[in-house]
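Example record

One chain of 452 residues, shown exactly as stored in the release files.
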Amino acid sequence: MTGTTGTPGTRLTVLGGGGFRVPLVHRALLDDAHHPDQAGRCTELVLHDTDPERLAAIGAVLAEQAAQHDGPAPRIRTTTDLDEALSGADFVFSAIRVGGLAGRVGDERLPLAEGLLGQETVGAGGVLYGLRTVPVATRIAERVAAVAPHAWVINFTNPAGMVTEAMSRVLGERVIGICDSPVGLCRRAARAVGADPDRADYDYVGLNHLGWLRRVVVDGTDRLPALLADTDALESFEEGKLFGAEWLRALGSLPNEYLHYYYHHREALAAIQEADTTRGEFLAQQQDGFYARISGSAPEGAFAVWEATRREREETYMAESRQASGGWERDSCDLDGGGYDRVALALMRAIARNERTRLILNVRNRGAVPGIDGDAVVEIPCVVDAGGARPLATGPVAPDQLGLMLQLKAVERAAIEAASDGSRPAALRALALHPLVDSVHAADRVLRAAGH
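Predicted C-alpha cells for this chain:
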C-alpha cells in the first residue's frame, strides 16, 4: 500500500470529490486516526471531480475540519484528471452524479408530468438516472482496471445496485456497493428493542432500496416478533412511523424505507405532486447557495456553512413520505449525517487490515439468495476480510419479496443493456416493466421527453 509519511498507509481516491457529502467521508477518516491499529490508515486522500470550483469549495471545508481535529489527518490532493486520480489508489470511492442536480430534476419532473412517481432512484426516475449513469460508471470501471487493477472500488453512486452490477461486469468481485439505508434500519430496530446495535445480528435480504429486515438477533434470541407485537415500540422509529404497526405485523418484517413508494404508492405520489418543489429542486437551490458562498479563496467559516447546510438537508430527507404518513420530524440520532461514510470506512478497514467484520453490502449473489442468479447484485449481509466481501446464505425468501426482487432485477438489467448499447427497446422494457409504471404509452412518452 502507498504511504506518505514513511509508515504503511492507504491511498483513497474519491470520484465525485467535489460532492456535498465528501466531508462526511473525511470526518470518518479523521476519526479512524484514533484506531489502535494504524496499519492501513488512510494517509492520502485524492479528490477527483470534473468541476474545479466544487473541488476548491469542498477542499476549504476539509481544511477547516482537519484543523478542528486533534490527531493526524490524511494529505489531500485534488485533480480533474481521472487517470491521475486513479493511479496508485488502493481504494476508490465512486460517488458521482452524472448530469448533476439538473439531471436529477429532469428525472423527477418528466415522470411527474405523466402522473408517475418522480423520485431519484425508485420508479421511472431511477431508470432514467441509470440510463444516464451506467455508461460513465462503466468507463470508470475500465479505467480502474487499466490504471489501478489492484484497487477496490466502493460504489456509492445511485442507483447503487444497478451501477454496481454494471461495474462488476468489468471489475468482478473488486467492486462493492454500499448504502446507508439498511444499516440505519437495523440500528433503529435494535434500539427499539433496547439492545446495543453493535451487539445484534441482522437477517436482511433484498436489492438496493428494496429490502426487508427479517430478524434482529440479540444474545441468540430473535427480538423482531416481540417488537412487531409492541405498537408503541414499533412506531417509535422511522420505519414504524412510515408504514404503521398494522402493516408491519401483516408483513412480518421491517421494510427498507424506500418500500414506502411501493406499499403506499398513491399517498407518496400525491405528497410529491402537492409539494412546491421536488427533492432535486430543493437540493439544487440549497447547494447552489452553498457553493456560491464557499467559492473563491477558502473563506473563514466554510465548515460552519457546510454543517448548517448539511443539517437542513438531513432534516428534510424523505419529507414527502413523512408528510404522507402523518407528518413527523426525524429523530436527532438520525440527523448526524453518518451512515454510508461509516459503512464505507468499516468496509475499507476490514479489507486493508484483514479486520473480519459483517456488513450489509451490494455484491454478486453467488448462490446466497435462492431464486436469484449468481451474477445478480443483491443487498445482503456479507463477511468481509482481506479477501473482499463474501455473501452469506439467506435461506428461502418470501414469495412476495422474491417476486418483487426478480421484477426489479429485470428492470435493472434492461436498463444496463440499454445504457450499454443504446437499445431503445431495452430502455422501453426497463421503464415499462417497472411495477410503479402503469402504462407502456406513458413510459414511451417519458423516454422521448428524456431524449431516448
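Notes: The chain has a mean pLDDT of 91.
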